[in-house]
Structure prediction request, 136 residues.
Amino acid sequence: MIYLTRKAEFAASHYYHNPEFTPEENQRVFGKCSNLNGHGHNYTLEVTVKGEVNPQTGFVVDLKELKDVMNREVVDAMDHRHLNKEVPEFAKAIPTTENLAIVCWQRLQPRLKVAKLHRVRVYESPDLFADFYGEE
Prediction:
């Protein structure tokens, strides 16, 4: 089994807000991130796929195809967007780094035909990331 990782970057804004919380609870739980005007981050997305090497091509997956899927499903859909307002999955879900990793998985997994999605990692800053491995 071979594992390959491809990286992409995008910038997006968001806020954290739970409509079931009072304004005071949102402020207490989410702090500055609860400002409904939002704030931005630069994100790094790492997508790891796994599979066997095709003896005819030497590929597990054509990395250009993987890049195209990552761009279409995540980067183009989220880059310079307000996640809460412009990404359908976050109309009701809080766009935490953890939830962002899950959404990226859900968008990518059905689009991969040859290699199997192994891990999605989203970095919000150099010291914060979330991994999502799906269900094995």
Remarks:
- The chain has one domain: 2-132.
- The chain has four helices and five strands.
- The CA atoms of residues 17 and 34 lie 6 Å apart.
